[in-house]
Automatic annotation (TrEMBL):
Alphabetically ordered keywords of this record: 4Fe-4S, Iron, Iron-sulfur, Metal-binding
Stretches assigned to the 4Fe-4S Mo/W bis-MGD-type domain: 9-65
Taxonomy of the source species: Bacteria, Bacillati, Actinomycetota, Actinomycetes, Mycobacteriales
Name assigned to this protein: Nitrite reductase
CDD domains per UniProt: MopB_CT_Fdh-Nap-like
GO cellular component terms, semicolon-separated: membrane
């Protein structure tokens, strides 16, 4: 029995540990030995709603699988030990690696679930205490293409540049590759007006729960072939222009590059778009008509993307094409209309701002920018030359482990790449080849199982910090129960490692409030400026959206109303020619496999597979296929199948679905071992964002 002891018997106001909607809830410790109670709270994003992951989030706090003492590998087995022995093993591993391989022999991998304070300190620790340039994180396979696309077109990346409540009155919303009915259920209430007006349009190869909702309300499901979102967006842009829906005034005063975009979109006639995407000319026209008529009536029009459109080897260009459509319709940077992306992880927004990304410094600054280096160096009290240059992106970093000249030691904080990395077997082998693998977690994830040292950390309800939600709103995470005796906070761990390495522990404060003050100063003048925020304002529940700096001390709920963050203040049409698919189908691999999420599980499943209610809702891996496709290989509903790609094979139970395309199958990625969807995925990387192609690879279905 682990003791998640109450600090007080009264409810503490905090937010859900899981996704970026960051639903508000209170946690009330049980007066006895039982689990804490979760109560949903009124908050603009969730309005008293929670999904079943949120409702059951306290179960993990005193779960028997909780790690409550450090573990080290002895004779091939992980064994409990004390903190001194564990951290000695970590520092010995770091020193050994760097003695033979130099500073970059040690690499660090972070996560978008870390608080802002931890994400900031992780990047600083890597650069200053380890002197390594090699830090990147799992957000690379989450938000990087959306971020690169928004940076290119708007000059800035805040996932939703407006509060979610702005969607409430909109009568037309186009969602491309987003399934919030499963991935952030309380969010869909913001789409109720659009759904009821028949103005909800969902582009997804599957009739997802979200697409269902659209169709039920009289809206549209664009059942496109996976990986053809660029063609779809350009086809819609074509229809908008030819149909006379271009907002010429907006395009000429607020944007640049339309002519180049049109030079490409002009060729995406409806019949060609239909041939490539499978979406009919009639549906293209109705979609544009819905958006433009609602815009013209002043009834709101929004376009939103998520991972279905973005997790491709041309994801940045796809985002560019979707933003181009939004610009042609005159939506971004105006009240009542807009474009945004649905950020995924709990701190997926803040996690990409404070410097745990290979090419980035705090404040969403580029590490190659001399002015950024000088500013951050002054806050850190070092010379700019002491800050290493850019490192490697997540997949490239993991793929270099143990290779000649690659890192021989790695620290992982808040990710489970054995399950979640593309081409997972290859990455698992790389992790195994390390001399020293250190994993900080609160459960023994599949990645922690491979570690030489496992460091137990507190969970969400046991820590203080801040997170930035999908709207760019900064929130307080509050401690409501005490962590188990053996767990140590990561801020403490990095401070202690810096002390043991003799590299200035005073530079790594352990109090999150002190770290927040520092990260706010480091962010001053950057794109993601937090400098006018402080802990007390956040604690008082002020709604603070970044940028919140000297010029905008009240924060910025809505961005780009006057100008975009580009040099000339205009949004850029950034449209590229549509590339052929990264891996096309062929006689040996005749189907396109795509991957994604189910309501009951979160990410690699390390947390939710341990929650009985969630595990019984979704106990086992499955593959969703059209019955005709299943029958062609002798399979039926419930049959045992193997899905095989050029990388490997995954075992799954067949789920027949008449609404599936006959060229596509879908795999959830939350399961472990031989049931990992990522055994088949393709690690082809986007040239700009380095996002892997999680959402389309050539596969075949076989009876197991
Ligand atoms: N229940 C649950 N909720 C979550 C998470 C979770 O793991 N579980 N994770 C959180 C995180 S980190 C993230 S990033 C978000 C992700 O949130 P979403 O992006 O909504 O989730 P996905 O299921 O990855 O993908 C969305 C949809 O894309 C479709 N799709 C697949 N391929 C394509 C394609 O080529 N084009 C198009 N247009 N659509 C395609 C899939 O069928 C799927 O329905 O969810 C967050 N919320
Ligand atoms: N095939 C396929 N693969 C995908 C995706 C897909 O759609 N398809 N989606 C991708 C996306 S969008 C994402 S975001 C990734 C996510 O994949 P992962 O990076 O594997 O994410 P999680 O499963 O959330 O892993 C977080 C781990 O950290 C632990 N943890 C949680 N909070 C903390 C903390 O504060 N500190 C520490 N030290 N540990 C903590 C949890 O227990 C868990 O073991 O997966 C990617 N992989
Ligand atoms: S929608 Fe996201 S934040 Fe809200 S309860 Fe579910 S997992 Fe938690
Ligand atoms: Mo994500």
């Amino acid at each position: 029995m682990v003791h998640a002891l109450p600090t007080t018997g009264s409810p503490t106001h905090t937010h859900c540990p899981y996704c970026a909607l960051q639903c508000a809830m209170s946690v009330t410790p049980s007066p006895g030995d039982g689990p804490a109670t979760i109560t949903p709270e009124q908050f603009p994003t969730n309005r008293g709603g929670l999904c079943r992951k949120g409702w059951t989030s306290a179960v993990l706090l005193d779960h028997p699988d909780r790690i409550t003492t450090p573990l080290i590998r002895v004779d091939g087995h992980l064994q409990p030990t004390d903190w001194d022995t564990a951290l000695t093993r970590v520092t010995d591993g770091i020193l050994r690696a760097q003695a033979s391989g130099g500073p970059d022999a040690v690499a660090v991998f972070g996560g978008g679930g870390l608080t802002n304070e931890k994400a900031y300190t992780l990047g600083k620790f890597t650069r200053l205490a380890l002197g390594s340039r090699l830090v990147d994180y799992n957000g690379r396979w989450c938000m990087s293409s959306a971020a690169a696309g928004a940076n290119r077109s708007f000059g800035l990346d805040r996932g939703m540049p407006f509060p979610v409540t702005d969607l409430d009155d909109a009568r037309a919303v186009l969602l491309i590759g987003a399934n919030p009915a499963d991935t952030m259920p309380p969010f869909v209430q913001h789409l109720d007006t659009a759904a009821a007006a028949g103005g909800m349009v969902v582009a997804d190869p599957r009739l997802s729960a979200t697409a269902h909702r659209a169709v039920d309300g009289g809206g549209i499901h664009l059942r496109l072939r996976p990986g053809t979102d660029s063609a779809l967006a350009l086809g819609l842009l074509h229809v908008a222009v030819v149909g006379g829906h271009l907002d010429t005034e907006y395009v000429s005063t607020r944007t640049s590059g339309f002519d180049d975009a049109w030079a490409i979109a002009a060729d995406w006639m409806p019949d060609r778009t239909e041939r490539v995407t499978g979406v009919s000319a009639d549906q293209l026209e109705r979609t544009v008509e819905l958006l433009s008529s609602s815009r013209d009536a002043g009834s709101g029009a929004y376009i939103l993307t998520a991972r279905g459109a973005e997790q491709h080897s041309r994801g940045t260009d796809t985002v560019g094409a979707v933003i181009a459509l939004a610009l042609a319709l005159g939506l971004p940077g105006r009240p009542g209309t807009g474009y945004g992306t649905l950020t995924g992880q709990g701190n997926g927004q803040g996690g990409r701002e404070h410097g745990q990304k290979a090419d980035q410094l705090p404040g969403y600054r580029m590490i190659t920018d001399p002015a950024a280096r000088a500013h951050v160096a002054s806050v850190w009290g070092v010379e700019p030359e002491e800050i290493p240059g850019p490192g490697l992106s997540a997949f490239e970093l993991l793929d270099a482990l143990g290779e000649p000249g690659g890192p021989t030691a790695m620290l992982i904080h808040a990710s489970n790449p054995v399950v979640s990395a593309p081409d997972a077997d290859r990455i698992t082998a790389r992790l195994r080849s390390l001399d020293t693998l250190v994993v900080a977690d609160f459960v023994l994830s599949e990645t922690a199982e491979l570690a030489d040292v496992v460091l137990p950390v507190p969970q969400w309800a046991e820590e203080e910090g801040t997170l930035t939600n999908l709207e760019g709103r900064v929130l307080r995470r509050r401690r409501s129960v005490t962590p188990p005796d053996g767990a140590r906070d990561e801020l403490w761990i990095w401070n202690e490692l810096a002390r043991r390495l003799g590299r200035g522990p005073e530079r790594f404060p352990t109090d999150p409030r002190v770290v927040f003050d520092e990260l706010a100063r480091a962010s001053a003048g950057g794109k993601a400026d937090y400098s006018a925020m402080d802990w007390d304002r956040l604690d008082a529940g002020e709604a603070l959206f970044w940028p919140c700096g000297a010029d905008s001390p009240a924060g910025t709920p809505r961005m780009f109303l006057d100008s975009f963050a580009t040099g000339d203040g205009r949004a850029r049409f950034a449209v590229a020619a549509v590339d052929p698919p990264a891996e096309d189908t062929c006689p040996d691999y005749p189907l396109l496999g795509t991957t994604g999420r189910v309501l009951a599980h979160y990410q690699s499943g390390a947390q939710t597979r341990r929650v009985p209610e969630l595990a019984s809702a979704e106990p086992e891996m499955w593959v969703q296929v059209h019955p005709v496709v299943a029958r062609a290989v002798g399979l039926d509903d419930g049959g045992r199948a193997r899905v095989v790609s050029r990388r490997g094979a995954v075992e799954a139970l067949v789920r027949c679905d008449e609404d599936m395309r006959t060229d596509t199958l879908f795999l959830p990625f939350h399961f472990a071992g031989a049931a990992r969807a990522n055994l088949v995925t393709l690690p082809e990387l986007d040239p700009y964002s380095r996002m892997p192609q999680f959402k389309a690879c050539a596969v075949r279905l076989e009876a197991a």
